[in-house]
Write the C-alpha cells for this entry.
Amino acid sequence: MKEGTNMKELEIKAERENLPKVIEFIDEQLAGHDVSIKIQTQIEVAVEEIFINIASYAYDADGGAATIRAEVCGDPLAVVLSFIDNGKPYDPLAKPDPNINIPLRERQKGGLGIFMVKKTMDNVAYEYKDGKNILTIIKNI
Amino acid sequence: MRTFNYTFQREGNELTIYFEGKLDSVYSLELEDHLEPALKGVKKLVLDFQKLHYISSAGLRIILTCKLTMNEQGEMKIRNIDPQVMQVLKITGFAEDLNIE
C-alpha cells in the first residue's frame, strides 16, 4: 500500500484486551473532523468487530500482531481503515449473511459482527497478499 | 478506567439490570460470567439501557442469552434505549423480536 501523507499506523498484539487501545487510536484519527455520534459509533463497532475477529481466529495459541492503518482523506471526506494480520488466510466477507428475519431462538451463532460492518460501512474489501489478510473499510464522514 | 458497569437489582422473582457505558467485547465476557446465576429463578427481567451508549455483537450475545433464558422462565423487556444502541438492534433484526419500551 502506498504511504499517504496523513496515514497513521498502529501495530499491536492481536488480543481482546487491546481493544481499548485500538479504539483510542481510531478516535484520535477522527478527532477534529466533526464526525456525528452516529457515524463515530458505526466506525467503532466496525473496528471492534474486525479487531476481535483477528484476536479470536487469526492465530493459534501463540498469538500474533495486527496492524491497523488509518487515513482520513478524499472528497467527500472519508476514513479509510486497513486491518492487516499474518494469520491463517480468512475472508470474512465470503461467509453468507445471517438471516435476520427469523426469531432470535432460531438464529445460528455468529456472523452478526461482520454483517454490521457490511451494512454500516460505505465500502468493505478483503485481499490476501504476501501472506497477509488485509481487510479495508471505508466510511464517508 | 472502566468504560462499562452494570447493576443487578433483585426484588423477589423480578430482576432489573442497569447497564452503563459501553458494552463491548471486553466487558461482555465479564457480564456473561455473572449472568447465569443472576437469572436463576427470575420470572420478570428488565434490561434498563438508559445509560448504555454503545453495543457490539458481543453485547448482543448478552441480550440473546437473556432472551433465550426468559423464553423458558417468564418475560423480558428492554427500556430506555439510546439511538445508537437502537440502530444496532434494528440492523441485526433484534429489535423485532424484543419487547421494547
In short: The first strand of chain B starts at residue 4 and ends at 11.
